[in-house]
Design brief:
The chain is of the alpha/beta class. Helices cover 49% and strands 16% of the residues. It contains 14 helices and ten strands. The strands form three sheets. The chain has a six-stranded parallel beta sheet with strand order 1-8-5-4-2-3, sandwiched between helices. The protein has a two-stranded antiparallel ribbon with strand order 6-7. Strands 9-10 form a two-stranded antiparallel ribbon. Helix 5 runs parallel beside helix 8, helix 6 packs parallel to helix 10 and helix 9 crosses helix 10. The radius of gyration is 20 Å and the shape is globular. It starts with 7 loop residues before the first strand and ends with a helix. Bound molecules: nicotinamide-adenine-dinucleotide.
Length: 364
């Protein structure tokens, strides 16, 4: 049986031993490589040459580097290219990129020929620590994000933290939001490490970078393995801050606010809510907020995308979150640093608005 982490490898340079890693899972050396334009340009030649030298047959697919690539029309085009180049069930798909490529690649792999194996090679901090792990793959529908998809576990997740050297700083900080989240929800020791080495990690200094990436990836894999289909409430704790974040993203129309930035602001709201409802002590609230404040935003983003919002409108936009159940919003809260839970009681609107106010005051 696969243990939660036996399919995740974190090392530089992971591609050098890709044939060996494929062999451990019985994967064929026939891979469709999916890139976006940026990852193709930055890493494509190196990866393809290395794989061919290790005896692989490869096919190459490239999509525009934007969220709209996660669509049925782009999947449809890619299916066509795969059929035309004789890709059958004996092939697998390697997704090389951020969450966009990982989600689209996973979606295609889950559906092509009723399912072929997918291998994730994440190249953003968010993808390395979150989206490539756990098997949720989806495309967007005009009526909402990530609404059409599958649970399709990757056979392998191959993580090479050195790929982050080319990632813009805004994406690094966006990814840090999810990393920090793991400290809040499941590991006080990890929180302390992040507190001490936040700047080392964002400066991509080793061994801190690899430590932060591995621990995040392994925490997510562990949670997913214990509650794969999100039935016990444990997997839902990965959404700490996300109910607020989805409301913020929706109000920004998914423009000029990175997901990680929305999650950072959302976690501040969720921390205040945890405190207001009597679960989180004042000292731990203050400690938590200090770490959150270290996630950097481009100038003007917090003002435009958070502080200037009407909080009632934000509240309404949170209700459009697809995770709502019977019009009741469920919040993930923490009762101490390192432990989250899904609060299953209805939370009074005044408390939610109050938490938004508190977080706005903190960021002002
Ligand atoms: N499946 C899941 O569980 C899950 C979880 C969280 C987010 N997501 C999805 O992930 C997506 C966001 O992912 P993302 O933040 O990685 O964004 P992204 O895939 O759009 O990548 C961000 C940008 O960085 C570029 N890039 C990627 N790697 C690079 C590198 N090494 N160097 C330089 N540039 C690089 C990309 O080309 C892109 O322009 C969203 O669609 C979201 O819905 C999925």
């Amino acid at each position: 049986m696969q243990t939660p982490t036996s399919h995740i490898f974190v090392r530089t340079s992971v591609v050098d031993s890709i044939a060996e890693l494929y062999a451990t899972k019985g994967l064929s050396r026939k891979s469709v490589l999916l890139f976006d334009e940026n990852t193709r340009k930055l890493y494509g030649d190196r990866i393809i040459e290395s794989m061919q030298a290790q005896g692989f047959q490869t096919r190459e697919l490239v999509v525009p580097a934007r969220e709209t690539s996660k669509s049925l029309s782009s999947a449809w085009k890619l299916y066509g290219k795969m059929i035309e180049t004789d890709v059958d069930r004996s092939w697998n798909l390697l997704a090389v990129g951020g969450g966009v490529v990982g989600d689209l690649g996973g979606f295609i792999a889950a559906s092509y020929y009723r399912g072929i194996p997918v291998i994730q090679l994440p190249t953003t901090l968010l993808a390395m620590t979150d989206s490539s792990i756990g098997g949720k793959v989806a495309i967007n529908h005009p009526l909402g994000k990530n609404l059409i998809g599958f649970f399709h576990m990757p056979e392998l997740v191959l993580i090479d933290p050195s790929y982050l050297k080319t990632l813009p700083s805004r994406e690094i900080y966006g990814g840090m939001a999810e990393v920090v989240k793991y400290g809040f929800i499941s590991d006080r020791g990890f929180f302390d490490l992040l507190d001490e080495h936040f700047d080392d990690i964002t400066a991509l200094r080793e061994p801190w970078l690899t430590e932060a990436v591995s621990r995040s990836a392994f925490i997510k894999a562990d949670v997913v393995e214990k509650d794969f289909r999100e039935t016990t409430g444990l997997r839902a704790t990965l959404n700490f801050g996300h109910t607020f974040a989805h409301g913020l993203e929706k109000m920004a129309e998914y423009r000029n606010l990175r997901h990680g930035e929305a999650v950072t602001l959302g976690m501040a709201c969720a921390l205040y809510l945890s405190h207001r409802l009597g679960f989180l002590a004042e000292t731990e609230l203050a400690e938590s907020l200090r770490l959150i404040k270290r996630v950097r935003f481009p100038k003007g983003v917090v003002e435009k995308r958070f502080l200037s919002l009407d909080r009632e409108e934000l509240f309404d936009s949170m209700y459009s979150d697809k995770k709502k159940i019977d019009r009741q919003l469920r919040f993930v809260l923490i009762d101490r640093i390192g432990h989250a839970f899904l609060h299953d009681r209805d939370v009074a609107k005044a408390e939610v608005l109050g938490a938004i106010d508190d977080a706005m005051d903190y960021f002002r």
